[in-house]
Each structure stands twice: as structure tokens, then as C-alpha cells.
Amino acid sequence: xSQTAEQPGxxxxxxxxxxxxxxxxxxxxxxxxxxxxxxAKLDLAIATIKKEITLVxxxxxxxxxxxxxxxxxx
Length: 74
Prior knowledge:
This protein is mainly α. It has a domain of 31 residues. Helix content is 66%, strand content 0%. The protein has two helices and no strands. The longest helix is centred in the middle third of the chain and has 44 residues. It starts with 11 loop residues before the first helix and ends in a 6-residue tail after the last helix.
């Protein structure tokens, strides 16, 4: 462990004595569950958007192919 600090005016002995609050384990579990729940919503939204992008790309490819082959008029 370093015996000096990089920040002028802050000594290691001062930093070493700073209390770091840690929530109880049950609260940590609640926090993790909440984060996972919210992240799941985002993951679902991302998956839906990726599907939509794929469908639009397929539609674009089909539209170009039909235009080039003369199946539709532009």
C-alpha cells in the first residue's frame, strides 16, 4: 500500500479513516433485483428494435429486387 497521496493536501491517514457506508445485505439484494428488473425492460426493448431493424432491412432488399427485376414500377 502506498504511503503517499497523489492529491496535494490529502494524506493517506485521512483517507484511511473515512467511513464507507455499506448497506445491509438484504438491501443490496433489493438493489440488485431492482437493477435487474429495469435492465430486463431495456433488454426487451433492444431486442424488439433489433427485430424491427431486421424486418426493415429485409423489406428494403425485397423492394430493391422487385424494382430491379421490373416487378414494380417506380
